[in-house]
Predict the structure.
Amino acid sequence: MNIQGFVNFLHTDKVRDSFLAVSGYLVLSVFFLFGLLMSRGDVAQQDWAVPITSDAAVNYASSFFHVWVRTGFGGHYVGRWGFPFFPLINGVLAPLGFVGGIELKLLAVFLVSLGGVTTYALARSFRLGLLSSFLAGLFFMTTAVVFDWLVFGWMFYLLAYNLLPLMILVVKKYLETSDSRYLIIGGLILSLSTIQPTFILVFPLFSLIFIIFESRGCLHIIRRGVVFIVACLSVWFLTTLTFFTAPNHAGITSFYQGEFFLPTFTQFENFSILINPIRLWGSTFNFQFETYFPVELVFFSFLPILLGISFSLLKLNNRYVLFSLLCYLSSFLPYFIYSNFHYLVFNLPYGHIFEAPSIFLAPASLGLAILIGFSNSTLSKLVGLRVNFSKYFVKIASFMIIFVLLIVAGAPWWMGAASGPAASGIPTKLNLYEVPSEYIDWSRDIAASTDYFVFYIPPSLSHPQIIDSPGFSLPFEGVNGVIFTQVNDLPYVWPTNASMFLDQLFEGDTQVAEYWGNQSIKYIVVYTNVEAPYDTAEILNRLSAQQGMEKVKEYPNVVVYQNSFAQPIVYTNSTNTLIDIIYHDPTSYKINATSSDPFYIIFNQAYSSGWVASINGAKILDHTDINGFNCWYVNYTGNVPIEIYYEPQTVYVISFALSLITIITLSIYVVIVSLNKLRNRPTPKLNNALKPA
């Protein structure tokens, strides 16, 4: 296609309509999230890591190249199904200044509008007009499901949610054309979507359901559809090798069984819970939406559902309407899954107990969105047959009625505050707050070394609320010491271990500092602006009374102690041995040891047989477990170069490289084939209005 042909293509009705739709969704997304964009906050309430400095963002991204968690007394990384697209993108953008909330604001606007765009594209392929398709996209991007997931900071959910319409569209294109590009695109979409892993339950299932409807009983179309699903799963498998090669990848399920099984299952024993999926108010997490939804408008929240279902009954001969209706009815699936298949769900790798109900609201929302598009089309036709107005006027009137209804039904988007109160209540619009500088400054001021661990008080498991207004709703959303929010690169003691250390302090042990020092705990950071279940002043008194503990920094809300007994991550108890850590990353440590006698080296990470120590390539075979840590006996003297390495990392690196090569190769192939097809496409003719005089 030459330049003139490309210009002609841009002037086609299809491109013009798409440009108008995309522009409209972006404008509406900015309107709904205007309070978020104007907020001064840096960090969002999240269930996943939010680096708020460039260094932390880069280090967080690099952690995905390792199979061992770098934090104090770390363990295996678990549950990484999808390729780490988001963290790597964040690591690239952070040095350019897009970090600490800026990228989250832009990402929120992008993801909300993306849902409208992908649904619009699918609706147009279902032969709906511009206005009807626009309304379908508008509903999909403004459901309470999006609201709830945005409140929780579940960007991974939103990405998969927004890509579901695109997946169905790609299935449709492949069934129509048998173009191999769509096999690859479908696989890459599945890989990107399973960055939230439980969506592996949704995408293949609803792709298969669509294939059955689209085939209309034609066996060769069904076979083609099966090929599509198998190819997508194959691409997904190749791009997620890191999950299958990581050790103990399914180990997380037991925790979620114990923590969430009983309350969730009990909740689903009550049929009244089904009213929430009917309204699409966020399944088990509807409290956020109902908190901010004006009581006076509750009636309107039911109208989109009534509208979609009512008008769909007039077009049951349309297979796309039937498919959409079935998708909407899938909102009832969680009850039956929990009642009858809970053992299967709970034992899926990384099968979080509370996630299964939420993920089935994605196809339900999509189905209802398409039904609303068909409702607008049907309504305008019915009114046009009975009213003597122009066809154009009827279409606009029908569109405006449903448009206003959808805006009112999603009132919290534009009526809610920019963020909730810090000390109480559930926040809306991503809960952005400004990070107190002292949360970051202390580590810079004392030049804290990553050869030691940091113990943060309170540990996140105690869930006290920070009462200072610049703070955060929970410590794990604002404190720089746990996995959810990262403001520096200091390895911290895991919350479960931190709780144990806190108990030791209150038991009155006078040897706490020395004991903590043997665990490589050098810094103790106490947040004093919290409503804790214990006396913060008493903690400070007990720390100050410990021999070897020195208060080195005191801010209005943060107090930092330094432990003089602290040993580095790798150390020896031999007085005749000097150890120097030359280099370390999460899975590799290089040490120079100088000793006049054989000695023991202690490595303060959780004991695992995967850790090996070697001298000049020869493994040290005497590897033992000492109090839960790794210990080797080194029968050498003089200057001894020692390397400690986590052996499963080798397989992990190979699988990661293969996944990356697969993604790059397939993406390049799709781009080259698409450009060739575009180049060979006949030049579209100009519309009469655009032809030269």
Notes: The CA atoms of residues 85 and 192 lie 7 Å apart.
